[in-house]
Specification:
Chain A: Its EC number is 7.1.1.9. The structure holds three protein chains of three kinds. Chain A is mostly helical. Chain A has 22 helices and two strands. Chain B starts with 18 loop residues before the first helix and ends with a helix. Classes of the chains: A mainly alpha, B mainly alpha, C alpha+beta.
Chain lengths: 657, 209, 322
């Protein structure tokens, strides 16, 4: 091999690092070839571009978010399996320290930012316009931009695995460890730029959904008549809007340190690493509420539907959502009680953190009393919701334990902490979004996911969860720190680690069953012909599954909370399901556009350029971004009409006239 | 209007509203932009916080007192405040339906914006020539980043205003172009407000300290 | 048949719980076996918080299982069904107030202990100071009172409150000796205090708790608690037999590597404070005072003394990664 080529393969492709890389390269090559070949064979390129990549339809964007989130869950989960395999026995040499460090970094970053975030955005997109009786979000074009920024951000992050090297300083990426002096490689740049790009998309999504919910509700839907999932989106959007700018700044300043050579967080020349820690957690703590609040919203919908009862204490539920989003800004320092703040500061943040338990506890009680004197049926969405309750109660309890500052001195950075946040993040967002996925799947695709395989997946994942994470609490008390790539034999950590690893495998198996379930159900799943497979309560279930492109042929007028349910009680649901043909008028819809995709691509190119300090590439990318924005400014004709006649035809074909 | 139907029936009181708010699709966009400004404000908030933490971290290099040029930043302030006024005049002209006046005021605002950016750039260059680069100390990193971010915002605003002016010239004044003029001016006023904070928190207190 | 299987499961669950409880008492649960007042106070607080929380969550879990059993949707379920019942002021007041009360009580305990831990655990005994510097990936302990220094192990007398003054001359780390008490970060440019005390002689496991890169897993150290006389013996032995720590040695220690233990009969004067000063301590007068007080050095430090002897960190000052 010529020397230049060898240098290229060693530096950028990391072929000198061994078989893990080679396997990944081959897998990625095969997958790419497979996708390209399939699309070409079935002549689907045009379809892909016209129907999906250029779509501004919230339902399609939601589905794309969902697919991306599931793929990322697979990637993050595969990382977790590698980590647990390494830790199964003491003094293990399955992974080197370098590889272990990279893998726990990508595991954390992907799960929070490229799995949980797109998963909640999938739910936002799929559900909110349908629940509030709108035809799309406030800014459909911006919505597409958000998705493509997320997508290309995630691509940029994932490509680091096989090109240039992954970040390896943890998902919190504290300087000075992440400064050039200690971390030269492009990995950290990948982290900074990919989070920055997808973060811009997230801010845009927050703005979009807040505006949508404030301005585009169906007539008569007052704020206090909104379904609780929509309320949870309001709360999460507010948190996004107020928290993400701090991340943007934290990342930008660290990037300047690394690329331009400034001294925000360096050890010398006056830099202050603590500043990064503060900025990061001013975003980072609210971030966990961003991902958990929509899950609370899902649970509220599911509990009411499957207990066949009105949600208990609606007003308290709304109040507690908003209270949580407010408190979330006053607790960030509990991530570093041990960083030498004064006793007064620590006490303040400890008490504030415990206070989160108050509105959260109220929500749990309200869910319980929604089921009290109800009629509970145990279908998949409800199973996951029920599993969430005890799980989250334990996770919440250990959360309060962690909030006790002096006790935290003993838990911090130990496996106790690891067990706690996995418990709240898995029981909350993951269970919640899986419940939501099952719940709204028929609305997205027109068929249900298979119940039997789903139950197997459910039990595997749940049992696996406890087997995996309960031992980690004990490991924390035994003094095991997080992020150790290996541990000595004499500490008594071995058995618990082995049990934990077995649990992780069981969870992985559970995930595979979900995949099997999806594939099986595409062919054999029960078709949803009514549009209302669960005996639903809110407006989205008055539409056919999947909903037509324009959602509502005629925008309904809302007179009650649980609109559909009330109408069912009064025997009037036909009013929503049978459309008066004369009431149908022409509908304006936003036009599809390829520009959001190209803009995402341009961001990717710019990001890639900055990662390697290839400024020509970076400038080309930025020019592309500017160009797409200016072209958009000159686009005046971005809507088209669906004629009333066409709408009537569609509705007639759906049997709704 | 179907896509952006509002909770209020769309055709009520249309005449009472300013032109940019009359079309509900456009009025939602204005709300969205207000929310965006909230995020941008927080962005600057974080930069201000960083600056306040790091402003004494001079590493033995230039201090605020050494590099701030009273004449320079006074002129910058004056120019930018005036441009905010002329921007306001352009909105007024838009509401009066006077296209020529609107374009004139936009061009004046753009010119003032360019002047501001020019002064700021020359300030930065002269600082750098004296060794006060953003790599010198944490204080200078924070200073250049905060003020530079504002300058970048202004530069983007200038391009945006040019693009808007071209559209007004081509399409005249209508609900869409009215909204565009209104929004770009909102942005411009916002930058003015941020500058007032930079003027006081960074420059004035830096010179006094 | 059914009853029997319930019994069987019950026995199994009891056995597992008992095993868990017993193993919880095992000496390898370091946090449960504190050997000093700080660790004990923290353990007490942990137990208090668990009890307070259990008061809420155990009944809640019981109610949860009762409800899903009682109100399941099976034909012939005679339990009451009231689909429209969704408000009860009384109930809501009850469950807003329960967590408020519990959090209130817990807050009081938290505040008390938080403040208590900033004071020396023993008021009647003269405390001693040890200056701790975390390096990549080793721990340097300097004894300003005794004039000796060690790497990766730390000898302390029993029954004496020790003020560990912590800093880092590498990415931030965290100083944790579970059996003595909770951790505190070591951060460049800052000097942070942590009071610990051992009441029993023995060797205690310590480890860097915050991730610092490649060598992190091997970043452990031992705290050896010995009686006062043994401690003094150790000091004089170290003084007479160990080599001196020179500036050159220190710069070598700073280079990323892992190593065993080492002892030094002396260390460069002002090393600890100078490191802090040059890495940002000069911008935090409060912190420097504390370090100065703790080490018994004069706090007045000029820029020039700070520069002397501290090798400029080449790796940090280079700003380009081309």
């Amino acid at each position: 091999m010529p020397a230049a080529l060898k240098q290229f393969t060693d530096t950028y492709l990391m072929w000198n690092e061994g078989y893990l890389i080679w396997i990944s390269d081959i897998l990625i090559a095969l997958t790419s070839i497979g996708i390209v070949a399939t699309l070409t064979y079935f002549k689907k390129w045009k379809w892909l571009w016209k129907e999906w990549l250029t779509s501004v339809d919230h339902k399609r964007i939601g589905i794309m978010y969902l697919i991306a989130a599931l793929l990322m869950m697979f990637r993050g989960g595969a990382d977790a399996m590698l980590l647990r395999t390494q830790l199964a026995s003491p003094n293990s040499h399955f992974l080197t320290a370098e590889h272990y460090d990279q893998i726990f970094t990508t595991h954390g970053t992907i799960m929070i930012l490229f799995m949980a975030m797109p998963m909640i955005f999938a739910m936002f997109n799929i559900v909110v316009p349908l629940q509030i009786g709108a035809r799309d979000v406030a800014f459909p074009y911006l919505n597409a931009i958000s998705f493509w920024l997320f997508f290309f951000g995630a691509m940029l992050f994932n490509i680091s695995f096989v090109f240039g090297g992954s970040p390896d300083a943890g998902w919190v990426s504290y300087p000075p460890l992440t400064e050039l002096g200690f971390d030269k490689g492009p990995g950290e740049n990948f982290y900074l730029l990919s989070l920055q790009i997808s973060g811009i998309g997230s801010i845009a999504t927050g703005i979009n959904f807040l505006a949508t919910i404030l301005k585009m509700r169906a007539p008569g839907m007052k704020l206090m008549r909104m379904p609780l999932f929509t309320w949870s989106v309001v709360a999460a959007s507010i948190v996004i809007i107020f928290a993400f700018p701090a991340l943007t700044i934290a990342l930008a300043l660290l990037m300047l340190d690394r690329i331009v050579g400034t001294h925000f967080f360096t050890m010398l020349h006056g830099g202050d690493p603590m500043m990064f820690v503060n900025l990061f957690w001013i975003w980072g703590h609210p971030e966990v509420y961003i991902v958990v609040l929509p899950a609370f919203g899902v649970f509220s919908e599911v509990v009411a539907t499957f207990a066949r009862k009105r949600i208990f204490g609606y007003t308290s539920m709304v109040a507690s959502l908003l209270l949580i989003s407010v408190i979330s800004y006053f607790v960030w320092a509990h991530h570093f009680f041990t960083m030498g703040a004064g006793a007064d500061v620590n006490t303040f943040f400890a008490v504030a953190s415990m206070m989160v338990a108050i509105p959260t506890g109220v929500k749990v009680f309200n869910w319980l009393f929604t089921m009290f004197r109800g009629r509970i049926s145990f279908e998949l969405p409800m199973l996951w919701t029920l599993a969430f309750v005890p799980n989250f109660i334990i996770g919440g309890a250990t959360g309060v334990m962690l909030a006790v500052a002096p006790a935290d001195y003993q838990y911090h950075n130990s496996y106790f902490l690891i067990a706690h946040f996995h418990q709240v993040l898995i029981a909350g967002p993951v269970f919640g979004l899986i419940a939501g996925m099952y719940f709204w799947w028929p609305k997205m695709f027109g068929f249900k996911l298979d119940e039997k395989i789903g139950r197997i997946a459910f039990w595997l994942f749940n049992i696996g969860f406890y087997v995996c994470f309960m031992p980690q609490y004990a490991l924390g008390f035994k003094g095991m720190q997080r992020r150790m790539y290996t541990y000595p034999a004499g500490m008594g950590w071995h058995t618990l680690n082995l049990i934990s690893t077995i649990g992780a495998y069981i969870m992985g198996l559970g995930f595979l069953f979900i995949v099997v379930q999806i594939v099986y159900s595409i062919k054999y799943g029960e078709r949803d012909l009514t549009g209302d497979p669960w005996n639903g309560r809110t407006l989205e279930w008055s539409l056919p599954s999947p909903a037509p492109h324009y959602n509502f042929a005629v925008i309904p007028t809302v007179t009650d909370r649980d609109m559909l349910w009330v109408m069912k009680q009064e025997g009037r649901e036909g009013e929503l399901r049978r459309i008066n043909p004369d009431a149908i008028a022409d509908i304006h819809m936003p036009k599809n556009s390829g520009r959001p995709f190209l803009m995402g691509l341009a961001f990717f190119v710019a990001g890639f350029g900055f990662v390697f300090n290839w400024y020509v590439l970076a400038v080309i990318g930025l020019v592309g971004v500017a160009l797409t924005m200016i072209l958009r400014a000159f686009e005046w004709d971005d809507e088209y009409h669906i004629l009333a006649e066409e709408v009537r035809e569609v509705e007639a074909a759906l049997g709704r006239l | 209007m179907a896509v952006a139907h509002t909770t209020v029936a769309p055709h009520q009181h249309v005449a009472d509203k300013p032109l940019e708010y009359q079309n509900p699709v456009q009025s939602v966009k204005i709300l969205g932009f207000w929310i965006f400004l909230a995020t941008d404000m927080l962005l600057f908030g974080c930069l201000f916080a960083t600056y306040l933490v790091l402003r004494t971290h001079t590493d033995g290099g230039p201090t605020p007192h050494d590099i701030f040029d009273v004449r320079g930043f006074t002129i910058e302030t004056f120019v930018l405040l005036t441009s905010s006024f002329t921007g306001g005049m352009s909105t007024l002209a838009m509401r009066n339906g006077n296209k020529r006046q609107l374009l004139t005021w936009l061009i004046v605002t753009i010119a003032l914006g360019l002047t501001f950016v020019g002064f700021e750039a020359s300030e930065f260059v002269s600082d750098a020539l004296r060794g006060a680069t953003m790599q010198r100390s944490a204080f200078l990193s924070a200073f250049f980043t905060l003020v530079g971010t504002h300058g970048t915002h202004v530069s983007i605003g200038i391009i945006w205003m040019i693009v808007t002016a071209i559209q007004v010239a081509k399409k005249g004044i209508n609900p869409i172009s009215a909204r565009k003029v209104f929004v770009v001016n909102l942005y411009w006023h916002f930058l003015d407000v941020v500058w007032v904070f930079i003027f006081t928190v960074v420059y004035l207190s830096g010179v006094v300290m | 048949m059914h009853k029997q299987s319930v019994k069987k499961w019950g026995a199994l669950v009891t056995a597992v719980l008992a095993a868990a409880l017993l193993s919880g008492c095992g000496p390898q649960y370091l946090v449960f076996h504190p050997v000093g007042p700080v660790g004990k106070q923290e353990l007490n607080l942990i137990i208090t918080s668990v009890i307070l929380i259990a008061i809420v969550i155990v009944p809640t879990l019981a109610i949860f299982f009762f409800i899903i059993f009682r109100y399941r949707n099976t034909p012939g379920n005679k339990a009451k069904y009231s689909p429209e019942w969704s408000e009860s002021k009384v109930l809501e007041v009850v469950w807003w107030s329960i967590p408020i009360i519990i959090v209130g009580i817990l807050s009081v305990f938290t505040a008390k202990t938080t403040f208590a831990l900033t004071r020396p655990p023993e008021q009647n005994v003269n405390p001693m100071t040890i200056e701790v510097t975390s390096l990549d990936w080793k721990w340097l302990f300097q004894y300003p009172g005794q004039g000796v220094a060690t790497v990766n192990y730390c000898e302390i007398p029993t029954g004496v409150p020790v003020q560990f003054v912590l800093t880092s001359d590498a990415p931030m780390n965290s100083f944790w000796v579970p059996q003595l008490g909770g951790q505190e970060y070591t951060m460049p440019g800052m000097a942070m205090g942590l009071w610990l005390q051992a009441d029993k002689p023995g060797q205690y496991y310590g480890h860097g708790a915050n991730f610092t890169g490649r060598g992190f897993a091997h970043d452990d150290f031992t705290v050896i608690a010995a009686s006062n006389s043994d401690f003094n013996k150790w000091v004089s032995q170290t003084k007479s037999s160990a080599p001196a720590l020179t500036m050159a040695d220190y710069n070598k220690l700073k280079k990323p590597s892992t190593m065993g233990t080492a002892s030094y009969s002396s260390f460069p004067k002002g090393l600890f404070d100078n490191v802090i000063w040059s890495e940002g301590g000069r911008y935090m007068p409060g912190t420097m005072n504390m370090a100065g007080m703790a080490s018994g050095n004069s706090t007045a430090m000029s820029n020039s003394t700070a520069k002397s002897g501290i090798a400029n960190e080449a790796s940090q000052s280079s700003s380009s990664n081309k």
